[in-house]
Hints:
By secondary structure, this protein is of the alpha/beta class. The protein has helices at about 10-20, 55-60, 80-100, 135-155, 180-190, 210-220, 240-250, 275-280, 290-300, and strands spanning about 1-5, 25-30, 45, 65, 105-110, 160-165, 165-170, 195, 205-210, 225-230, 235-240, 255-260.
Amino acid sequence: xxxxxxxGTGFIGKNLVAKLEQQGHFVRTYSSSQNSSESTTVKHIxxxxxxxxxxxxxxxxxxxxxxxxxxxxxxxxxTKSSEDIEDNLLGTIRLLNLMxxxxxxxxxxxxxxxxxxxxxxxxxxxxxxxxxxxxSYGITKLSIEKYLHLFAxxxxxxxxxxxxxxxxxxxxxxxxxQGLINTLCFNITHEIPVTIWGDGSIVRDYIHIxxxxxxxxxxxxxxxxxMVANVxxxxxxxxxxxxxxxxSITGANPEIQYKEARSFDIQxxxxxxxxxxxxxDWSPKINIDEGIIRTVECLTGKSPTKKHP
Length: 309
């Protein structure tokens, strides 16, 4: 297939592009960044998604669009929600209109399993759980999902929404200071103090980026007009548990600073992955210990000094 990866130079994008190439798909990338791919076969188009710059050009002769672009973070204050709407929601509606005109067949959207549901009424969270986000980031992601459903109902476009939990692993931009495991591994291996928001009891569902990439590729096989599925490990681990695993694997003894909890951090979020297992024959392959070891190796270029039992 001929695939366009919006956000192809980012964390999820780089890993996805490599997998699509390995399977023989034609790949084109689009982002505001210059092309950082080592591949000589991937064509990159630089543009501003918020304004639609060069987007129509990027969509030419494309079968499947991977929408991985997001210009905001979950901690964006609600007072700046207009930026979230303008950059991400309106940009996506423009994209869908262009796709309708260009006769592109499918869109696969990377949504947020950690924010679209809001406070859990039960665990693990499945796709039927109520969606009541408590941050602008989650509201915008959910709004995009709704528009994808609208366009799927009223046009030739098929849409797949993958609600990804907390990805970690290679190609993460550590400068963004987003993602507990990557930030933790980087700080610990570079002897930088670790800052934890709250008392470390918050529980999250962590998924290795290799498993995320496989889920995104599997979505190519979906034949439904519209589908929503969680992409997760299905296992909940507290921040303190992750810290202990990283310390055990690296043998480090860093300074850990606990600060006041943030209002937008939900106490516990674990996602069910039953739906995607059935629909796309996908399941996570990399457990948390192996994933942390791989992350440390990627960041340092060498194997950890200790292995978790």
